[in-house]
Structure prediction request, 348 residues.
Amino acid sequence: MEERVGFESSKIRKNFFEVVRFSVNIPSWTKLAFFFGLSKGTFQNYQYGTSLIPKLIFEKMLDLLVKEEQNFFREKIFLKKENWGASKGGKITFEKHPEIFEKGQKVSILVRKIRSFQRPVINISLSENLCEFVGAIIGDGNIDGSLKKINNLPTYTISITGDLKLDYDYLVNYHSNLILDLFNVKSKLYFRKDYNAVIMKLFSKKIFCLLTKRFGFKPGNKNYSVKIPEEILNSDDKLIFSTIRGIFDTDGTFFVDNRPVYKKPYPRIALQTVSRPLFLQLKNFLEKYFYLYTFEDSKRKAYSIEVYGCEQLDLWMRLIGFSNKRHLNKISNYYKLVAGVEPASSAY
Prediction:
């Protein structure tokens, strides 16, 4: 269950948000909310202390600060479980009526055991985090269910590959925690310096079954046939947005077009895929919200989608956003550039 972050005082909380905004040089609170992929209302709840901040979002904000600032704010926060309010209420009830808990304790233990069998991972509720994970598998993941033998047992391996330098933070500090929160499964990292790659691997039969039996992914080479599962396509748009975020985090790109034909630097979000089914799904869904540039290269059997322009970038950050710092840093530098500030140097 994801933890939530609160601050020791309202003064510290206010200072934190001011420092974050200063670090990316975004003058508008609304645009800063878009930058983190949040609605204005949700962002204000975090900013004013009405709601505690999900730990993953807090870490995204913290990553934008210098090391000294990170250390300072880490010492000024407290962590609560997502259901801390309900838990607190339960403690109060226990103090007033301990006999209720004494009578129900054995039943509660039995119910938890039954539920653990009734709700395996394959039946986990569809959520934004689960859809983002599925999106990352679609973008740059691989599923291996071959019958290779290790100690006379078949192996079930799910992996996501990224650039050793550009995607390291995303896989190590963000996506591994997302997977841990979802499945309580720890990932393992492998480095291929000869390919300049970092590979995050999960050795889990339950996640393998979730992806293959429930969502319909096929083990092996999926490049030409991969697509968004119908269960997600038939769900709420916010879940589809999360899936698209995972796809573009792993396989998409953000760049600034500086050709003279444009008066200002021109932002573009792009994806190229060899899967025609995925291309058509993305095209049909995204064109409900964005003006798209699409291109089909029949010779190379490759398909491209682009979302372009400052207003559309703002809309993308509000509806979909990114979780990968390789994209977030470039977008931050773009906002600094259009605001008339020289972009900061970045390892990304």
Observations:
- The chain has four domains: 3-81, 84-118, 123-223, 248-338.
- The chain is about 50% helix and 20% strand.
- The first helix runs from residue 10 to 24.
